[in-house]
Design goal:
The protein is built from six helices and nine strands, in the order βββαβββαβααααββ. The chain has 183 residues and is α+β, with helices and mostly antiparallel strands. The strands form two sheets. It has a seven-stranded antiparallel sheet with strand order 1-7-4-5-6-3-2. Strands 8-9 form a two-stranded antiparallel ribbon. Strand 8 and strand 9 form a beta hairpin. Helix 5 (116-127) packs antiparallel against helix 6. The radius of gyration is 17 Å and the shape is globular.
Length: 183
């Protein structure tokens, strides 16, 4: 796939520094769901999953490492050059999920046998709630489904934002940040 280029204005949602792709740029990606990309931001190489925003576009967080490399702040405009890639980097497994997986060597082996994309999807599905009881239930369901041969979570909208810290009802919180998207 060709390199997709755009400029985006950074903005904060709480403590998160966010890049949201313009809608017309996101439409060039192969899916409305999560997409792994590699490319550059202000000339610095990076690879990250783009999270759906629940509005038919995508976003990602500027983490501390990338932030120090590109030296930007909220309100700054960055230049992105990205391409979707088939190779997925391993997700960071939240402690509660990892602990549950390691309680059974059988389940942990099954977890390691599914694709990296499937591991991302399990984590996204589990984390998409602020309710601790629902999260615990989803972990139990994941363990049961893995034991029964299911390799990926089913029956949920993969096009929604699954990070509760920056979304409401599966939609990225934009409010005053609408002007952060250059048309």
């Amino acid at each position: 796939m060709a390199i997709i280029s755009c400029q985006c204005k950074l903005f904060n949602i709480g403590d998160w520094l966010i890049v949201r792709l313009p809608d017309e740029v996101s439409k060039q990606l192969p899916t409305r769901s999560q997409v792994m990309v590699e490319g550059t931001i202000n000339g610095v190489d990076f690879q990250t999953p783009l999270e759906p925003d629940g509005r038919m576009s995508h976003w990602f967080e500027i983490d501390e490492k990338l932030l120090s490399a590109i030296a930007v702040k909220s309100g700054d405009t960055v230049t992105l050059e990205i391409s979707p890639v088939k190779y997925w980097i391993e997700p960071e497994i939240p402690a509660d999920i990892l602990s549950a997986l390691k309680e059974s060597s059988q389940v942990y082996t099954l977890w390691q046998d599914v694709t990296t994309l499937a591991r991302w999807e399990w984590i996204r599905w589990i984390r998409s709630t602020n309710n601790s009881k629902t999260r615990e239930h989803r972990i139990d369901v994941m363990l049961s489904k893995l034991r029964n041969g299911s390799r990926r979570p089913c029956c949920w909208n993969r096009n929604l934002c699954t990070e509760p810290a920056v979304s409401k009802n599966g939609v990225l919180i934009l409010e005053d940040n609408e002007n952060s998207i250059k048309k």
